[in-house]
Amino acid sequence: MKFYRAIASFQMALLGTASVAVAQQLKPRPMQTYFVPLPETDIFYETFDRINAIATAPVMSIISVSISTDNTIVWYDEWEDDYDQSVDQPGSTTKIWGDGIASNGCAPGVTPCTNTNDRLRAGQAIILENWVDLPRNNKQIRFDGGDRIQASFPIAVTRAQYPKEPGSLLAGAAEVFDTMRWGREFVAPVGQDIRGANYRDAFEYTALYMMAEEDDTIVTLPDGSKIFLDMGKSHLVRVNMGAKISADHNIQVHVLAGDIGSTYEMRWFALVPAAIWSSEYITPVGDSTAETKVVCYNGGTSSITVDYQYFTGTTLQRKTMTLAPNTVGQSLFIPTNSGARFNSTGKFIALSTSDTLSSTSGQIYDWGFPVMPRSQLSSQVLIGWGYGCTGKVCVGGQGSRSVVWITPTANADLYIDYNNDGVVDSQVAANYLSSTRITDTDNDMTGAMIWATVRNTGPFGTAVDIAAAWGQDGSHGVVNPGDTLLYTIRIQNLGQVDVNINGLTIINNGVPPLTTYIPNSVWYKPDGGAAPIKVPDKTTGTPNPLDAEGIPNPVKLTKRGGTHEIVFAVTTQGTVDRIIPNNGFIVQSDNRPNLPFAVDIPLVVPTAQPKVANNNNGTVCIPLTARREVRRQLREEGRRERRRLAEEAIYEA
């Protein structure tokens, strides 16, 4: 099987307590959830203005959404009028792109907006740009920080901003992680106490921006104080190196660093959780002009030695740096046309920083990014926001100043599909640790797909690191005892060719605790719109056919981007426990590793429930005019209960 990625996405739909017609409930659900970080008010007053007081509002907000798969549906939920309880009950300002219903919106740039045109295709880039006036008025709906983006298939999201003055000279951009890549413990690898000639005040200003996924998240700040953050709300704190923050629910964190009083040095980094720090990293960026260097931080309790290697011409250079606990080190600059590999016996984190020259004071080519752990790499990449220059208005060859950098982990052929339409536009031979720069003639790499295969095996040849597992709680709602939960296991081909996946076996590790399996509720939905297939219950042991040996995947993914879904239903039991865990794995053939999946659903027992009528046909009927109020009451009940429990936990601690 070539260029195959199985995504086991767990999703939950909250249904009525009457009988469930499972086969009729198979409709697109969110596979990924993103929250747009870095709200404009904080960015302007606490970062732009701190770097240089010349900064003038308003702020240009840029959010890029790149589509990987045909027929993706994107739900764009504005924070200004509160988040929707679920995608089945969208608010008046929520946009739904790609569902074939023009009345709820088409993606920006789609004209005319008709049902036929309301379709998203692989490689399509949705660029959301607007000025955001300050102070912020939440009656003005904008594409900005705090908005929630959900997608039925994987997407890539990038966030960028700059003030009106001095414009994009004082700009920053960072990748946005979907909520499955968020975490609960983070450590600042850099800080305001990092000084000296080697760093040229690059971290004189350092702030951690954090954002919560759930209401009433308790965040412990570096000084030990605790704050509450609701869903999509943000907080920032200025930090020194090694500062730690933790939370009782998942948060996302970005590091913003700069030189105070400069014109204008600033770098943004998406911070990975401490739990996935690694002992090996590979960076694709080498630049002799900007003298790109890699900063490595040891957050452990013992000294470590970091070995790193890069090429000068055809000669492999090997270097080392020794890092004491809670210290940082900086590599020599990585030359043009070379990437670099960093490894150690202990775990550490690495950041790439460009423009470290004394001649430019870090103010010309200043940018940076978090170097991804080797274990997080894949053989293919979807480019998020890839403008060659501000607003794509490029003159004098400036369009080639912003490029995509690629480094293979072995000798390989790189294939570039600029529009992600399934047609290879360019091919490049690349050696191990070489750095290849890729640009497009239209000064925009947004939405491009780039992948690598073993040298001379062709675009569909042998590839590595293409299997990944994702999980998603698609509700973020209140689940009560007696509710029916519909779980969906989604398997998708994200590769470049049609593949046969008969060798897969789907296993769920028993019925989730605190629930009861609903007999005869397992259905299999094949790719291509075919009718759902009923999977019979077992006649021995537990009735759930997903238990124990599991079920084989019976059919073939017949197309690039194809998807299969397996669903089953359970009923929550009358209990006051707070979490319903569920997990399982996909067994692959050919000795490939198993692909795990997991999701934890909060179970909240409100003190009172709204009065609704049941029509006995499997759905709960709530008058249209009352839906907003019902959702508000449900969230408020859950918020009060979670805050009470959180305050008790703080008191006990």
TrEMBL record:
The keyword Signal applies. Keywords: Signal. Residues 1-23 form the signal peptide. It comes from the Eukaryota. This is DUF11 domain-containing protein.
